[in-house]
User: Which sequence fits this backbone?
């Protein structure tokens, strides 16, 4: 009996301990209890997010939301709260793991939230001792020709003597410190000689400091990129294989930034290669002009394929509905560049690898064209000047049909005198980003959702004015930028309007940079951009109902403004991360005011551009 009682006691203790262990495990797994409506954290930080990596900055902005009646402090400093509940403030930063500590007093309750971010260390100059090399360029393999220059850089200890050597090249090439004794950045350059024996040759940089009293007085480091002589005999010819190929103004910069766009060659265009840096070919256009293309966008042609030397025999002009077309028969697809005059008085077409044998031009004064003139600017550069009636065209398309180059100038469709100016126009409206995408506002409002609301509002107003609207993103789906512009052109839209709302990078100050902005890229789009920008200024004047400053009219190489077939503008109506402007974007009245400003600008532009239908101006 006593033994049974003892065993029962032991079993009771065992199950008690087991229950406590189980409860402890559940607590560890769950962390904190699931918050109820009464215990939910009322303090939210939208930006920056947890463990976000921030560049080496002295300060950045923090924004989020709290109940509007609360009193908020961040890192000890009071922060104003907008009536919507949104807040934004600047916070001083320190390198490394940095904490943003928010404290909210809400009635008798105090809530805390800590956001940890990683702030980059500012770039430091290596110490003079021990003698050090941090990094050396070039980082990519290069294939170049005699006469080309090779640039070599080194980041290391300041105040040293520096030089580099190249396998297959005699001697040492001296390098210079950009700020002697201070910067630790050394630069050197070498011009390749025809006698140099270069075949994946390694480049080595050395620093020497004879004044050091201890440690090494000489260090060397090899660049990761090698140097070879480009095999140009016979000439290397390639053909464009990608519909998205781009000819750029220069090679990619050492820190990864790509050079600007220059040309968009059609598939089948033949190019001559004269060098390579990493994954980019250098393309010879003329003796004085080169461009660069990604190696993945072309294929090599068989050895012995000759460089282009194409005669331009004849040019003819024809008219079709709302278009004037120029036909230039050629023997092969060669690169070209079309540059419109900012005033719309002419376009200059340059054909590379072409020479004039132009003895015949047909129907020159047709449509919007008044005359044509040709020039041989230099060997391999044939230029055709297309003179036009100013204001008679508003976009162009370039394409090869077989080996004939077609330039299509699009002319505004005529309108009846008593019709609204937008009547019958096809207007493509783009709601930027996708559902939930783009920038986020302090209260979590997503730019993609606001953009769609604006696009739907604008669509309704445009249709009421008699326009046909092509919604490039009709719903919550997310589409690529190229798919959007292709849809606009497939439907032969007359004008493209892309709707966005802005955000800031880490280094910007949201208290000085905010408001509305209008962006354009092509010369044909500038007049439209000016009118819409002016209409926004009138709709949102200083001291008006909305505190919405003018953020400017901007030239910007953006995918949605780059298409030359139609005037295209991108509009940023407000900044998502500013509580005041986020609150505006939740207002139907504000969205409607933005749509009206866009329509006002469109109507002023279109009135000037569209001709009256024949018989209406009698």
Assistant:
């Amino acid at each position: 009996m006593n033994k049974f009682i003892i065993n029962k006691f032991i079993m009771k203790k065992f199950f008690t301990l087991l229950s406590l262990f189980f409860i402890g495990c559940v607590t560890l797994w769950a962390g904190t209890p699931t918050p109820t409506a009464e215990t939910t954290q009322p303090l939210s930080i939208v930006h920056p997010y947890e463990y976000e990596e921030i560049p080496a900055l002295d300060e950045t902005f923090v924004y989020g939301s709290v109940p509007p009646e609360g009193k908020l402090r961040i890192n000890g400093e009071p922060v104003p709260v907008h009536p919507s509940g949104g807040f934004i403030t600047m916070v001083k930063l320190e390198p490394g793991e940095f904490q943003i500590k928010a404290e909210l007093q809400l009635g008798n309750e105090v809530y805390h939230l800590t956001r940890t971010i990683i702030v980059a260390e500012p770039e430091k100059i290596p110490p003079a001792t021990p003698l050090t090399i941090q990094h050396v360029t070039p980082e990519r393999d290069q294939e170049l020709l005699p006469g080309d220059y090779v640039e070599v850089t080194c980041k290391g200890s300041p105040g040293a003597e520096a030089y580099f050597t190249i396998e297959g090249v005699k001697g040492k090439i001296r390098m210079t410190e950009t700020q002697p004794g201070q910067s630790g950045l050394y630069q050197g350059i070498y011009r390749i000689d025809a006698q140099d024996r270069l075949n994946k040759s390694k480049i080595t940089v050395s620093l020497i400091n004879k004044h050091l009293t201890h440690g090494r007085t000489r260090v060397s480091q090899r660049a990761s990129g090698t140097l070879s002589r480009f095999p140009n005999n016979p000439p290397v010819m390639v053909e464009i294989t990608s519909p998205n190929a781009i000819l750029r103004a220069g090679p990619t910069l050492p820190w990864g930034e790509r050079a600007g766009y220059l040309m968009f060659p059609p598939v089948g265009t033949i190019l001559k290669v004269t060098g390579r840096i990493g994954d980019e070919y250098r393309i010879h256009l003329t003796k004085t002009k080169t461009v660069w293309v990604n190696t993945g966008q072309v294929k090599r042609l068989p050895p012995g394929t000759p460089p282009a030397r194409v005669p331009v025999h004849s040019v003819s002009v024809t008219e079709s509905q709302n278009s004037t077309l120029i036909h230039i028969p050629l023997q092969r697809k060669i690169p070209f560049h079309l540059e419109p005059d900012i005033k719309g008085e002419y376009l200059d077409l340059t054909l590379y690898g072409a020479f004039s044998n132009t003895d015949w031009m047909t129907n020159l004064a047709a449509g919007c064209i008044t005359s044509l003139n040709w020039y041989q600017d230099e060997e391999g550069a044939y230029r055709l000047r297309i003179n036009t009636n100013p204001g008679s065209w508003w976009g162009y398309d370039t394409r090869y049909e077989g080996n004939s180059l077609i330039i299509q100038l699009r002319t505004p469709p005529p309108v009846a005198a008593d019709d609204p100016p937008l009547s019958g126009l096809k207007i493509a409206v783009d709601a930027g980003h996708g559902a939930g995408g783009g920038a986020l506002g302090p209260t979590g409002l997503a730019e993609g959702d606001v953009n769609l609301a604006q696009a739907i509002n604008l669509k309704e107003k445009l249709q009421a004015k008699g326009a046909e609207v092509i919604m490039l993103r009709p719903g919550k789906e997310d589409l690529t930028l190229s798919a959007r512009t292709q849809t606009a052109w497939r439907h032969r839209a007359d004008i493209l309007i892309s709707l966005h709302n802005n955000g800031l990078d880490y280094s910007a100050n949201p208290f000085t940079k905010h408001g509305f902005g209008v962006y354009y890229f092509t010369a044909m789009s500038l007049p439209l951009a000016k009118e819409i920008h002016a209409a926004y200024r009138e709709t949102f004047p200083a001291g008006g109902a909305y505190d919405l400053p003018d953020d400017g009219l901007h030239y910007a190489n953006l995918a949605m403004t780059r298409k030359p077939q139609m005037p295209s503008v991108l509009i940023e109506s407000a900044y998502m991360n500013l509580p005041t402007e986020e609150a505006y974007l939740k207002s139907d009245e504000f969205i409607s005011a933005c749509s009206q400003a866009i329509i006002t600008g469109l109507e002023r532009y279109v009135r000037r551009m569209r001709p009256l239908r024949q018989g209406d101006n009698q």
Observations:
- The helical segments are 2-30, 447-464, 481-490, 526-539, 579-585, 588-609.
